[in-house]
Amino acid sequence: MAYTVPKLADYSAAALTSAAAECVRECAREANRVRTVAELKAFRDRWLARKGGVLTQINDLWLKNAPKEAKREAGMGVNQLKARIQEIVASAIAPPVEPALARCETVDRVDVSLPGIRRPIGAEHPVMRASREMCAVFQRLGFSIAEGPVVETDYYNFEALNFPPNHPARDTQDTLFIAGQQSKPQRERLLLRTHTSPVQIRTMEKMRPPIRIVIPGTVHRNDPPDASHSPMFHQIEGLAVDRNITFGNLKGTLDHTMKEFFGSSVKTSFRPSFFPFTEPSAEMYVSCFICGGSGNRESGPCRPCKQTGWIEILGCGMVDPNVFEFVKDNGYDPKKISGFAFGMGADRIALLKYGVDDIQLFFQGDVRFLRQWA
Length: 374
Ligand code: PHE
What we know:
It is a single chain. By secondary structure, this protein is α+β, with helices and mostly antiparallel strands. The protein has two domains: about 15-100; about 125-374, Bira Bifunctional Protein, Domain 2 (BirA Bifunctional Protein, domain 2, 2-Layer Sandwich), CATH 3.30.930. It has helices at about 15-35, 35-50, 55-65, 70-90, 125-140, 155, 200-205, 245-260, 320-325, 345-355, 365-370, and strands at about 145, 150-155, 190, 210-220, 230-240, 270-275, 280-285, 295, 300, 310-320, 340-345. Strands 1-4-5-11-10-7-6 form a seven-stranded mixed beta sheet, with helices on both faces. A hairpin with a 2-residue loop joins strand 8 and strand 9. Phenylalanine binds near residues 197, 237 and 341.
């Protein structure tokens, strides 16, 4: 019988411990039964899926129903339990792809007439390919590539991007912090950058306006892995600063690049949004190039656009004058210049462009999957 999350009638420490222990035991048992890649995916989804996964159910059944006095204890217990389950799921492994290889007999004599060993030629990873192709579209418009460190300071990741200390917008980024930084002043503390936007500031410190750059790179957020989330993913950032840069320039540039990347028939749509470092801010959607914007396919409802006909691709906006204040001395006087910026998920555009339905496939290193881009 598969494990189902029990309701808790009793919130004593002993009852919680035993319910948690049972849950861990069952998870480990299921992990041991995983035999194929498909089973591994099903197992991971069953325990970690945001919607209806066992951990989500535990949150709903145990935490939300806990009596007031027991909330703290129960919260701590559930957190420990989550960490343990995540460990078990992460360490579950599918069997080697070609077990037959293991049966190969060893050769004890050298036959010099045999051909040499032909090393298979590698293929570019689909995420790198999508990222490179997107950057290339911008390069043809005169943008150059800039890069920056993955381990960042609080200053570049947040403060200089107009996220004041303790501002709630910081919480939306699920930051992974480097341990042991408490003795440093906040702005010097290290973290894994949650977006590529800090490279905007780093580049403006080094180069005077005008600038046009695209910034590909790895970012991290403390998101549980599922079909569309990974704690490590990739972004492509853009920044253009000059005299008289307008929202019209932003729209024209992005509309052109989306047509180049996804195909000339896609349309773009800009909807109001918020980022601390842009004002005004927008989210840009492209018309769904899978169903042609109708929301439906011959085979039924269109999943990639959730039947809306539109797919969200990126966040963007006009650089907030407060951001320029941090680099004012290098020629960025907000009274004289303006700029636009945008940031998109490289993995996401790769998923969409290549019709892949699970981001995890990009990072599991299964050669049979990756070979498709060779
Ligand atoms: N950094 C934002 C994010 O990761 C995206 C963004 C970049 C928005 C640049 C506006 C301008 O969500």
